């Protein structure tokens, strides 16, 4: 007999209609940060400890990792303040409101797809950037990093050209950061550091 998929009860958002940002966590005060594609969750699980004042939400398309990380948050006693939902960020961000309700977006090592026919799956693309711009508060932060340097350069060109963002890197006029400004490290980032693989890090602020 076929076994039921063990993650079919992954935490999900309502399948349609507007999504109030305040409904994403049990606690509804404190700055709200969203991580897109947390995967195994190392960054998010650290970040929730590093930022005890903030609410943190992960949007992870893979049901397995959304379930495991969300369960971990609850086991850590952080389930009121931090959640991971098994959702495609490209589909749920356009339904979220109010505008300007998010203080930071993190996108660590996105888009592990290389074939031309998989281009439509890319997360960091104009429709998502428009949603991030809409949801970020003035001065809010967008942080993107990748170890696929030419893809990172492509992200940089797109975000640099977006009217809503200003560059907030190490040098004026650049979004690039030589090192991570966070204590928290994601799974892929840890591996890149161990293996000495260069990482392209970009930081932007939402213009007022
Ligand atoms: C290369 S992994 C990186 C995982 C983690 N951020 C890290 O740094 O280790 C990319 C992650 O993004 C997730 N992902 C890809 N497209 C997504 C989407 N549209 N919405 C939400 N998550 C997505 C994948 O399932 C995967 O967990």
What does this entry look like structurally?
The protein has helices at residues 42-50, 63-75, 89-92, 126-135, 149-161, 187-195, and strands at 19-20, 32-36, 55-59, 82-85, 96-97, 102-108, 136-146, 165-167, 176-177, 200-206. The protein is an alpha/beta fold and 208 residues long. It has a single domain, classed as Rossmann fold (3-Layer(aba) Sandwich), CATH 3.40.50.150. The strands form two sheets. Strands 2, 3, 4, 6, 7, 8, 9 and 10 form an eight-stranded mixed β-sheet that branches. A two-stranded parallel ribbon has the order 1-5. The longest helix is centred in the N-terminal third of the chain and has 13 residues, at 63-75. The site of S-adenosylmethionine has 21 residues, from helix 3 and helix 6.
What ions, cofactors and ligands are bound?
Answer: S-adenosylmethionine
Number of domains: 1
Bin the helical content.
25-40%
Distance between the termini: 58 Å
Task: Return the CATH topology.
Answer: Rossmann fold
Give the low-pLDDT segments: none
What is the N-to-C order of secondary-structure elements (H for helix, E for strand)?
EEHEHEHEEHEHEEHE
| Tally of helical runs | 6
What is the CATH domain class? Alpha Beta
CATH superfamily: Vaccinia Virus protein VP39
Structural class: alpha/beta
Rg, alpha carbons: 17 Å
